[in-house]
């Protein structure tokens, strides 16, 4: 056996012998029989999980092998460790099961701009909450959420709040060509002492019927009434409600993290923090068009390879004389222009 070259012939130099390398085993732990739980809240590195078999709520940490950001509210996870739910006990999330759906958003502001993340997993309905006044409705935000819902394979529902302050007919007409459930809610009373808000009960029953036996996500700008709705559906939730700034027209953030609540009649509703933007950089042009099903049918007459942008040769979206369709095409193209193009495009 040849001597190892240590770079010198000086006998006084002592070289520590190298450690033997041992290949890592390819055998991984099997968690197929581990108990399962659904994540209903994430707070500062602690995961609040409701066990599926007995309903016990446990607090857990993420296994070291799971990368950062790999666990989202709504995830079904394999749970190990102390699953008693006792105070100061700590379980561990060992594995995240395959997701049925994943609602994604791309950050557009701050240091995280361009980063895609999953907001909620395994939900089947996206409830787009839009106020008719204070703050004013923004169709651009609604369109972005519709695209995100269709891209994720979720059913979209448009909930128009504060119908006591403004007429919802214009927004309802704007989305008349979209296969979309549209419901409204009105505020009927505010307790002057407790500031507890009461919604119209008939409207609330209609909303509750749409949410029963589903996992639904509420999303919208701050101040549109998501927390008020949660409190009406789940009184024990006691979500803090805020107000809208009279100068800026923007609401104050009252929810700081997504949190799931169980409905008494069955189903789950997930409240999310108010958002100012909803980035779609992760969505391609074809997926974007699926978010406009009324335009998707018209686009069938486009020539092959049509990019649907303004000025595209023989684009069928340019030939409609309907003013409503023209407005929808403008909304679609604004979103299309906002999506970053690949370098080879």
From TrEMBL:
Q: What is its EC number?
A: 3.6.1.-
Q: Where is the composition biased (Basic residues)?
A: 13-26
**Cofactor(s) needed:** Zn(2+)
The positions annotated for binding Zn(2+) are 302, 306, 308, 315
Q: Where is the composition biased (Basic and acidic residues)?
A: 1-12
Q: Which class of enzymes does this protein belong to?
A: hydrolase
CP-type G domain location: 107-278
Q: Which residues form the EngC GTPase domain?
A: 121-276
Any one Gene Ontology molecular-function term assigned to this protein's record: metal ion binding
Main localisation: cytoplasm
Q: Where in the cell is it found?
A: Cytoplasm
CDD domains in UniProt: YjeQ_EngC
Q: How is the cofactor bound?
A: Binds 1 zinc ion per subunit.
One annotated Gene Ontology cellular component of this protein: cytoplasm
Complex formation: Monomer. Associates with 30S ribosomal subunit, binds 16S rRNA.
Query: So what does this one do?
Result: One of several proteins that assist in the late maturation steps of the functional core of the 30S ribosomal subunit. Helps release RbfA from mature subunits. May play a role in the assembly of ribosomal proteins into the subunit. Circularly permuted GTPase that catalyzes slow GTP hydrolysis, GTPase activity is stimulated by the 30S ribosomal subunit.
Q: Report the sequence similarity comment from the record.
A: Belongs to the TRAFAC class YlqF/YawG GTPase family. RsgA subfamily.
**Name by which UniProt lists this protein:** Small ribosomal subunit biogenesis GTPase RsgA
Gene that this polypeptide is encoded by: rsgA
């Amino acid at each position: 056996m040849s001597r190892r070259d240590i770079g010198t012939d000086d006998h006084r130099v002592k070289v520590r012998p190298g450690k033997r390398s041992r290949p890592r085993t390819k055998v991984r732990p099997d968690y197929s029989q581990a108990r399962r739980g659904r994540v209903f809240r994430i707070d500062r590195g602690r995961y609040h999980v409701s066990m599926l078999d007995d309903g016990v709520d446990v607090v857990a940490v993420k296994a070291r092998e799971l990368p950062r950001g790999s666990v989202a509210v709504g995830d079904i996870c394999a749970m190990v460790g102390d699953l008693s739910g006792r105070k100061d006990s700590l379980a561990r999330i060992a594995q995240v099961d395959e997701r049925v759906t994943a609602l994604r958003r791309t950050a557009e502001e701050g240091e995280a701009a361009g980063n895609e993340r999953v907001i909620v997993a395994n939900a089947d309905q996206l409830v787009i909450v839009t106020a008719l006044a204070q703050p004013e409705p923004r169709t651009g935000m609604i369109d972005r959420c519709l695209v995100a819902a269709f891209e994720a394979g979720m059913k979209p529902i448009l909930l128009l709040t504060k119908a006591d302050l403004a007429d919802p007919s214009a927004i309802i007409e704007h989305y008349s060509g979209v296969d979309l459930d549209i419901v409204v809610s009105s505020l009927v009373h505010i307790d002057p002492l407790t500031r507890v808000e009461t919604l119209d009960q008939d409207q609330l029953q209609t909303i509750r019927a749409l949410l029963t036996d589903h996992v639904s996500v509420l999303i919208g700008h701050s101040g549109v009434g998501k927390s008020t709705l949660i409190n009406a559906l789940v009184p024990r939730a006691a979500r803090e409600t805020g107000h809208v700034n009279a100068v800026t027209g923007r609401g104050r953030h009252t929810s700081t993290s997504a949190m799931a609540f169980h409905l008494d009649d069955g189903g789950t509703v997930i409240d999310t923090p108010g958002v100012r933007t909803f980035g779609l950089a992760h969505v391609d042009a074809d997926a974007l068009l699926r978010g406009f099903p009324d335009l998707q049918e018209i686009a069938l007459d486009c020539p092959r390879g049509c990019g649907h942008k303004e000025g595209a040769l023989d684009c069928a979206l340019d030939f409609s004389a309907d003013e409503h369709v023209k407005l929808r095409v403008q909304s679609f193209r604004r979103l299309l222009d906002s999506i970053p193009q690949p370098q080879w495009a």
